[in-house]
Amino acid sequence: MIELENVTKNFGDFPAVTDISFRVEPGEVLGFLGPNGAGKTTTMKIITGYMPPSSGRVTVAGFDVVSESLTARRHIGYLPETVPLYTDMTVEEYLGFMGTIRGMPRDRIRSRIGDVIDVCRLEEYQSSHISKLSKGFRQRVGIAQAILHEPDVLILDEPTIGIDPIQVVETRQLIKNLAGDHTVIVSTHILPEVSMLCQRVIIIHEGEIVAVDAPENLSTRLRGSERIELEMRAPRDEATRIIESLEDVTGVTAVSPREAEVLSIYVDAVAGSDTRAELASTVVSRGWDLLTLRSTGMTLEEIFLNLTMSEDLETA
Ligand SMILES: Nc1ncnc2c1ncn2[C@@H]1O[C@H](COP(=O)(O)OP(=O)(O)O)[C@@H](O)[C@H]1O
Ligand SMILES: [Mg+2]
User: How many CB atoms lie under 10 A from the CB of residue 113?
Assistant: First the structure.
């Protein structure tokens, strides 16, 4: 239903999104999880046709979002990060206006306004000025406009950000209800939110996909490990056996071929441990030449930590 092929977006020299590819099947709810600045909003703007990619291709319901933008958009409902609401309009006037600019026939607009007000539980506020609404209710108006033209795909950019806890619960429930008959991508920087809403999660970090999995598998990986890359001149079997027996080490994977002169391995260790000093002294004390020893960058666990910390900050 949604397909991204090698999508890249650069702002000047800055790579906001790099070579992202994935598919979302009809009826699926996909979570797009990543810390602030990860590239979630940029990717969503590209999917909805609001911004062209620097390279790569996106189709929604089979239509290219750049070359067949108008047709593609008929299939897409978009809740942007900041909804451009016209605060001097009433909820009804605003929805009518959105229907008109989308070219919906007048009768259909009228009946759909009734439907979306019902679905988004806005009955009490349909004649209120948007300026009078709380952030949570404005967000519901944002969702109402997104579903007004009955799109089959919904792109929701951080739908629960900045709204009060009761509204967060109701908004999540509303999204769950919509999930039944829509294909949905919902972005969030809140880890528990994806578990509640999504069947599959893509974790994006610094513009790249770092993991794709079911939420429950991601939680398992959360208990996972820290990875260290080690290169040395050492007897392969003996070295892997000794390193495997170290206290914090959970696994060793040999990377170099068996006949290679230099032994290259990945050492997985308990998350949060720093086994580098112990690894170094083990290698050196055996009289092996240590050639490389380094942590392989940010682990999934560190990214998770980042994500869960943002939730704490927000609810603090
Ligand atoms: N219009 C723009 N011009 C330059 N840089 C941008 C622009 N929009 C986003 N960025 C940068 O691209 C990166 C990804 O941003 P964004 O997609 O908004 O991330 P997220 O939604 O995950 O927080 C950030 O570093 C951001 O500063
Ligand atoms: Mg964003």
Answer: 22
Ligand 1 site residues, Cβ closer than 6 angstroms = 11, 14, 16, 34, 36-42
225 alpha carbon – ligand 1 mean position (Å): 30
Cα separation, 303 vs 307, whole angstroms: 6
Strand partners, 126: none
70 CA distance to ligand 1 centroid (A)? 25
CB 19 within 8 Å of CB 207:
no
Rounded-to-integer distance, Cα 94 and Cα 132, Å: 14
Measured from the alpha carbon of residue 34, the closest ligand is 1
**Per-10-residue mean pLDDT for the chain, 316 residues long?**
97 96 94 90 96 97 95 95 86 96 95 95 94 92 96 95 86 91 90 84 89 73 71 95 92 89 89 80 95 72 56 42
The DSSP code sequence of 56-73 is EEEEETTEETTTTHHHHH
Q: How far apart are CA 281 and CA 279, in angstroms?
A: 6
Q: Which domains does the chain have, with CATH numbers?
A: 2-220 (3.40.50.300), 224-301 (3.30.70.260)
- HSE (CB half, 13 Å, CA atoms) of 237? 0
How far apart, in whole angstroms, are the C-alpha atoms of residue 152 and residue 37? 28
Q: Cβ(135)–Cβ(168) under 8 Å?
A: no
Q: In sequence order, what are the residues at sequence separation of 6 or more whose Cβ sits closer than 8 angstroms to the Cβ of residue 139?
A: 79, 83, 159, 160, 163, 167, 171
